[in-house]
Amino acid sequence: MILYIEGHSFKYELENICRLFFPFEKIEVVSGKTTDADRKASAVRRFFDDKAELYVEFCDKEYKKEDSTTLLLDTPDFEKECERILAVMLYKQLCEFTDTEPKWGILTGVRPGKLMRRMADSEGEEAAVNYFTEKLLCSREKIDLALEASRTEESIINLSRPDSFSLYVSVPFCPTRCSYCSFVSHSIEQARKLIDPYVNLVCKEIEYTAEIAKRLNLHLETVYIGGGTPTAISADQLDRIMTAINGSFDLSGCREFTVEAGRPDTVTDEKLAVIKKNGATRISINPQTMSNHVLENIGRRHTAEQTVSAFNMARQHGFDNINMDLIVGLPGDSYQSFCETMDKIRSLDPESVTVHTLSMKRSSGMTMGGDLPEAELGRVAEEMLRFAKSELKKSGMNPYYLYRQSKTVGNLENTGFAKTGYEGLYNIYIMDETHSILACGASAVTKLRSQSGYIERIFNYKYPYEYIDRFEEMLNRKQGIERFYEAYPID
Predict the structure, then answer these.
(1) Furthest-apart CA atoms within the chain: distance in Å
(2) Residues 68-105: pLDDT tens digits?
(3) What predicted TM-score, i.e. pTM, was given to this entire model?
(4) Is the peptide bond prior to 113 cis by the omega test (within 30 degrees of 0)?
(5) What are the tens digits of pLDDT across the range 95-131?
(6) Exposed, middle or buried: residue 6 (CB in 10 Å: 0-12, 13-18, 19+)?
(7) Which end of the chain, N or C, is surrounded by fewer C-beta atoms within 10 Å?
(8) Domains of the chain with CATH codes
């Protein structure tokens, strides 16, 4: 598809609107003369005296639709309003052409709850709801979801202090690579020789990062060991990482310590004992589905029965805060089989469940192999999400955090549900950008936040072999943490 723009710089937003309706099609953005293409859209702004004309046209073979309007130059937030109006016109044309109406309207941002909370704080909840409805064209169902999640988020965000930070440690190894996965993770078989040197260096980076945090008098709020699958490595290797964290950081005020035990086939008594001994307060066991047929489709080498076994094993080790992740829209999953998954998850009675919508990232094996879901899968995924929310509420869980990704089936969302008091604090802090995240390990990103909300990032090397080979060079980047706090001191 060709997207032609003229007289403005709203490329990013309009390209995202096109991608809502054609997620797996290459969108080429051009300026100047329109080029020949079966499918193309034009978004043009021209100025006349005291106003601007906004024009949008969409063509697909024999189909053609065009709209135009004008906007006075002295309109408040003129540039932002021009962008919104062009997006709305293009969105409505594509809704008509595809006979679909995305429930989030023209809202393409990652953090709808954050936007809702910011608007409600500044203008009142009613004004925020009206803006989401009338200006962003969001459905009432999604507005209510954003409202509910944002209210819970706010109470947790308020726990953070000006000197707070969270620690993230990356363990980018998995038993196998799932077909939908786009994360930087390596199978144990391929990367076995890298794991032990990687663990040694991660421990050194943890110690180095802790020294910086101490010099800056920062207060640790949460710890999150993620991946990949942290429990894919050996119990001894996991113990070394967690021992380094405990020996390097002051955890006396830490509110939450999470370890992803994501793949049930990596969960053992020995590893659970290590996690418990080292003070983790929350773990995540992530089946994604309880259908063995669907698990096979996505390249997972475990069964639903192993998920139940891993969960019960964790309970026996005294874990009383367990999260489980599910994905709607997986290939081969049906509404009925998803309902059966929900029944099995509810019978286990975890403290929280995170329901993701399948995101078809460009680098995932599923997308690269051309195994793309059919268009109607979006409607089925929406029914799955609605059912999940209803069932989890019956289990005493409410939405507490919310985020969106590009190229999701049906342009839907990811929502964390939790029983009261069991919300995943780190999830909220990183999604809201509440405070700084100091990150260790390959592909980890340190995200520094000033009190005014300015964000600066420090990137670690992406792949384990780069991380190992260029470790000292990477450590030097971390000196940027102290430079940041010198430039943006804590009051």
Answers:
(1) 75
(2) 999 999 999 999 999 999 999 999 999 999 988 999 99
(3) 0.91
(4) no
(5) 999 988 999 999 988 899 999 999 999 999 999 999 9
(6) middle
(7) C
(8) 1-101 (3.30.160.100), 159-476 (3.80.30.20)
